[in-house]
Amino acid sequence: MAKVLMKGNEAIAEAAIQAGCRYFFGYPITPQNEIPAYMAKMLPKVGGCFLQAESEVSAINMVYGAAGAGARVMTSSSSPGISLKQEGISYMVGAELPCLIVNIVRGGPGLGGIQPAQSDYFQAVKGGGHGDYHMVVLAPSSIQETVDLVTDGFDIADKYRNPVMILGDGMLGQMMEPVEFREKETILPEKPWATTGNKDGKPRNIINSLFIDPQSLEDHVLKLYKKYAEMEKNEVRVECYNCEDAEIIIAAYGTTARIVKNVIQMAAQQDIKVGLIRPITLWPFPTDTFKKWANVDHVKSFLSVEMSMGQMVEDVRLSVDGVKPVHFYGRTGGMVPTPKAILEEIKKIREGI
Amino acid sequence: MAKVTFNEELCKGCELCTTVCPKNIVIMNKQSINSKGYHPATVEEMDKCIGCAFCARICPDVVIEVE
Amino acid sequence: MAKVFEKPKALTDKPFHYCPGCTHGIVHRLVAEAIDELGIREKTIGVAPVGCAVFAYDYFNCDMHEAAHGRAPAVATGIKRVLPDNVVFTYQGDGDLASIGAAEIVHAANRGEKITTIFINNAIYGMTGGQMAPTSLLGQVTTTSPYGRSAEKEGHPIRMSEMLATLEGVAYIERVSVHDIKNITKAKKAIKKAFEVQLAGKGFALVEVLSTCPTNWGMTPIEALKWLEENMIPYYPLGVKKEVE
After folding, report:
1. Residue C160, SS3?
2. Stretch A284-303: mean pLDDT, rounded?
């Protein structure tokens, strides 16, 4: 198929439709409004159902119902709306329901701003919803990658019967880039656990996350964690860029990683060797990759660059485990770090070495 | 001839059935205690039963079957 | 001898956990009877609330979803939009439907979602130990209105049926009671009709069932039925609030 110039948000919606998603429930919030708008226009054309819910809370619960009924379903929102969805996400995890949740992150906390940010990392990766659980969190860095991860995201959700999150940001959502959609035949998996009616003596299905007996609940959570162990084994995705000979390795994801690649070129022109480890799955985090590079002699330190006050940096520190120093540079509130400023940080770190 | 059967183990002694019987034959069996600790409802004068099923219809615990 | 009355097939064998005399048991059975009589058990999917009926998925013998508190109408919307040929019902209490779930029920009704809602109004929060509900009466003493509900502090009780009946998407709303055999019979009729409205694809259907909570009202089950009749019915008049052809 030919390359098309598309806005990030619209590409997400188109990718979902091509991946066989036929149900979208959401609510307007900047900067992701093009996703529901695209779905509203296109889903009826493919026999799907778009519904603007009365709130993000309602939307995630519609997703719960649809997923429980066996559908491939998604929702999208931005930071404050994702906060509203946390109860529903926790319920979907507990009830072992698959779905795709897209967060086009904006500045926070509170009503915040509408410019891009990465300040929802903790919320996505460390919980957000109550209880012991994880979600695979995918962080694309280009619109093409977003399209690919949307497709994979649905498959991962179905494989493990667990929600999957795409953590984007306002920049990715609003910008336009050429995209190519995979000519892939979508085979939707069988879902014998879905509630479609219990005909002919088939045992009835119950979609539920209530386990009032504590031993039962513990057993259930242990079962969920077996899935998470599998995810940690199978689903880690990471890109290592220019790490060979690197003196400083930058950890960055999403839009920030693109800026860092520019910084690496700029640094090379000044004979400063900088590499990038770009987690594509924020959970499961590419701990082993960081560990490996931390233990390489030519790597002197790490720098986490984020559009936040420093959230991923904690996981970088955990992974590096004290072997090398880990620094942080970030902007927040919707401010985007400039290549020049990042390069300045690198120079400051080198002077301190 | 009508007959009612009480699944005594399900009875919670709420007594609602005793208020609706048109023949006033539904009583609480003070002589008996079920494993939940309640006096179950019962009918002793079964010959008076007309099979209206009012008792069964107000019972919240589906204790009563009517033939 | 032919069985005149027995447990409906749409109820499982699990004994109810409800308090002695709690009318949840009566209403569960009426819903199950309606499902049996309409022959829809194998295509029905129920949505359980958070409240005393949180374990409803153990009692109704059909596919069930457990919803978050108040969200059952949204969950039901998701199910029905995916499976329009199935029968979807929610079973909700007064906290679930009229408090935390107020937005969800208004919008499901407004969209005319082809679902059936059974609304249990017992003017109190049972499961959590007797707090005030949006439907608690003025002067009613509860753990969170220990001086009696006052219009000035807590507002008036909400008449959900009348309020929802103003919405275009609503096809049928009736308020019923279960405090005596005559009313139980009417309640059963209304519940069955609410499912028939869904089967006919007419729109949103809701039956508000005035119910008792002997434990948290601090009365015997028999006293509770009387309290319902004398206090709730004057404020919550029984009858059809909306019915479309």
Report:
1. helix
2. 98
The nearest CA of chain C is from the CA of A131 a distance in Å of 15
The two tokens of residue A63 are 């997703």
Q: What is the pLDDT of residues A83-112, one digit of tens each?
A: 999 999 999 999 999 999 999 999 999 999
Nearest to C169 by CA among C229, C117, C82, C108: C108
pLDDT at B20: 97
Subunits adjacent to chain B (3 or more Cβ pairs under 8 Å): C
Q: What is the pLDDT of residues C69-106, one digit of tens each?
A: 999 999 999 999 999 999 999 999 999 999 999 999 99
Classify each residue of B2-30 as buried b or exposed e, where b means 16 or more C-beta atoms within 10 Å of its C-beta: eebbbbbebbbbbbbbbbbbeeebbbbbe
Which pLDDT band, with edges at 50, 70 and 90, does A353 fall under? low
Question: Which whole-number Å values give the CA distances from A198 to A116, A194, C152, C192, C196, in the listed order?
Answer: 47, 10, 50, 21, 20
* Cβ-defined contact of C3 to B16 (cutoff 8 Å): no
Of C43, C57, C82, the CB nearest to A69: C82
- Dist. CA A324–CA A311, nearest whole Å: 18
CA distance C26 to chain B (A): 4
Residue C27 backbone phi and psi in degrees, to 5: -70, -40
On the 0-12 / 13-18 / 19+ scale of CB atoms within 10 A, C131 is middle
A93: left (phi over 0), alpha (psi -120 to 50) or beta: alpha
